[in-house]
């Protein structure tokens, strides 16, 4: 987790509806949009929390009253930090509120557009504001956009136990169907995909097995999974040891205390793609159990391959000395400890499996007070979850249309080196080095290359590539691959490879050329392997994990795909990639070389009072809706 809210994780349930004949820029879009709806659910740190208590803050003129903004009110965070923390932190064991203050998620669109509204803080904390503006520009009615926020501090089981969240989400789908007569489109970002996955599993316990698939077909038309940490994110481990400040001027130790009190802090823990939760493989969690919990079972690949499918070991940590033997948490770790000399610091390394099963936290339990709490949360809220162990690989959900979208080719953290800092808890660990993946290599913060298993590409600055691209396993044995420039283009530099062989469990690496100055989108599409279902993976060059939801490139592709899906005259399974022209006035600009508006087929010069430069007067032609027929 990074300080600029990179770990924002959102599944929103937006219900967006267009009239049967919608008008945009004076033109008409042909198609039955009256039944189109969608669902958005806000995720980690991307929904406002408001106070539900009266709290007097001593030595500060700012108190907390009911409905006061808590997350995110930077003024109170700075001037009344102790009070603010009381309203933010939860009991790490039972996930209850502080006795003096409780917070609850806000509701409505205002809860998700800007976390801290204001002239300066608003743009810095903007999440879904640009998305809402895009929807309005394309004719989506105000009463058709629904946000369903939730308390992103809670684990999935606590969301249902305290707030009946998944019951309410089910009702939202059913209300949308009854209101509009058609299924919804789910748009999920980062942790929101984990929320949606849990909902699908929870739904199996609420609906008769014979009616489950029919319910999904009736209520969900398409699922857009954006920036999904399908195998977790290593930045979660960093936050548990040294804290994540979310860009706020708070000490890292304080941020660590707050983050580790959230039950959701372990929801994004990295885990092995080779381990399931049917049988026992960890002595640590199997010894002395009285209840039957979901326990991992790993296949042979976990032990034959290094690093649990990740590029390198996730944590390398110095243990100051041996205090006692640890006979209960695995033979591998016991062998490591047996080589340690008393009083001599020894470095231990842990892969994704050893973090997800608790071996790592057990190893540092004598040196870190948080480990006991984290072990409790891991066992109780995740491995012991009655619906699903979220720290297991996700098979393709049985939905008609799935689009997995993520950014690639950014420098992304994949491993850390920690050592004792000599300071008291919670500042007792210091990060000594970081391992990054970038352009097919692994290197440290100091620039040294290291050995490992780097992927063909790197991640999106927050989630590693192997975790993002795990959804390629959802594609079938034959895949069509298309690579196009992200910007508007007339068909140049478009590369298409059809019926590419795909071995399940292996990455698909297209043999295509790249111009070093061009950012591309690579589409992997399969509409044949599963009858009646489509699966697509979009890789967007240099798309940042947080900002991808505000990307006009993503919104353009999303809109065209949805428009193509609904159009009665569509001629292909997916929208064509052969050409991309401007769709909005903002996409038009002045071509000084030709002394006219660029993209003359789409744009024209049309001055409006208040325009201050030529490019501002370039606008989409009133007949641009007719040009969309080229995308059918």
From TrEMBL:
Superkingdom, taxonomy of origin: Eukaryota
Keyword annotations of the record: Signal
Record's keyword annotation contains Signal: yes
InterPro entries (UniProt xref): AB_hydrolase_fold (IPR029058), LACT/PDAT_acylTrfase (IPR003386)
GO molecular function, one term: O-acyltransferase activity
Gene Ontology BP term (one): lipid metabolic process
Claim: Signal is one of the keywords in the record: yes
Signal peptide (residue range): 1-26
PANTHER family: LECITHIN-CHOLESTEROL ACYLTRANSFERASE-RELATED (PTHR11440)
UniProt-recorded name of the protein: Phospholipid--sterol O-acyltransferase
Species this chain originates from: Lactuca saligna (Willowleaf lettuce)
